[in-house]
UniProtKB/TrEMBL annotation:
Keyword Transcription: yes
RNA polymerase sigma factor 70 region 4 type domain mapped to chain residues: 140-191
GO biological process: DNA-templated transcription initiation
Family: Belongs to the sigma-70 factor family. ECF subfamily.
Originating species: Desulforapulum autotrophicum (strain ATCC 43914 / DSM 3382 / VKM B-1955 / HRM2)
PANTHER family, A to Z: RNA POLYMERASE ECF-TYPE SIGMA FACTO, RNA POLYMERASE SIGMA FACTOR
Domain RNA polymerase sigma-70 region: 34-101
Gene3D superfamilies: 1.10.1740.10, Winged helix-like DNA-binding domain superfamily/Winged helix DNA-binding domain (1.10.10.10)
Keywords: DNA-binding, DNA-directed RNA polymerase, Sigma factor, Transcription, Transcription regulation
Annotated InterPro entries: RNA_pol_sigma-70-like (IPR039425), RNA_pol_sigma-70_dom (IPR014284), RNA_pol_sigma70_ECF_CS (IPR000838), RNA_pol_sigma70_r2 (IPR007627), RNA_pol_sigma70_r4_t2 (IPR013249), RNA_pol_sigma_r2 (IPR013325), RNA_pol_sigma_r3/r4-like (IPR013324), WH-like_DNA-bd_sf (IPR036388)
Protein name (Swiss-Prot/TrEMBL): RNA polymerase sigma factor
């Protein structure tokens, strides 16, 4: 009988340890929870590398197929999301190597199409104009992120957008923490320069 502790599609009542256990048992609901919980975040990670929306979607689908096949080998040495990020990075880089000659640099950002609504602060009246300006700023920032060198861009996406720690990023990318800090510093410096020119 299927475990009924998974009470909602969003998996709000399922902690990571229990989710991993259910995944290893092959529970269909657990995989639906996994996709619902992490798909959007992994799309951002993949897009940060390949800069292609459609390819990112396909890559993340491949990530979940890989997880389905390899979850039994996951030992829990890192957070589940860190493991997912590592798989996503590897598949994204593999795609870039395979399709390097055909790689296109004209693309559109996930954030520009599907950014969440801006939250109103307690001391601010939210109007269509302020929403437009903030959405426009967000689009400018994402466009600037796309101009970063790949290594700096990936670290920036993982740290700033996905809020991974330096240690988690180092683990996912197989680099030293000092290298993570250096690439993040480079990314922020370049972004500041790009945004200053646009302003």
């Amino acid at each position: 009988m299927e475990n009924e502790t998974i009470k909602s599609p969003a998996g709000l009542n399922l902690d990571e340890k229990h989710l991993i256990k259910e995944l290893k048992l092959g529970r269909e609901k657990a995989f639906r929870v996994l996709v619902d919980r992490y798909q959007r975040r992994l799309l951002k990670v993949s897009y940060g590398i390949v800069l292609e929306e459609e390819e990112s979607l396909e890559i993340v689908q491949d990530v979940f197929v890989t997880v389905y096949r390899q979850i039994g080998s996951f030992r829990g040495d890192s957070r589940l999301f860190t493991w997912l990020v590592k798989i996503t990075i590897n598949l994204s880089l593999n795609w870039k190597r395979r399709w390097k000659r055909r790689f296109r640099w004209s693309h559109s950002s996930f954030e520009a199409h599907d950014a969440p609504p801006v939250r109103a602060s307690e001391n601010r009246i939210e109007t269509p104009e302020t929403l437009y300006r903030e959405r426009e700023l967000e689009a400018d920032i994402m466009a600037a992120v796309e101009t970063l060198p790949e290594k700096a861009r990936v670290v920036f996406v993982l740290n700033t957008l996905e809020e991974l720690s330096y240690g988690e990023i180092a683990q996912a990318l197989d680099i030293k923490i000092g290298t993570v800090k250096s690439r993040l510093f480079q990314a922020r410096k370049l972004l500041t320069a790009v945004l200053a020119q646009e302003g």
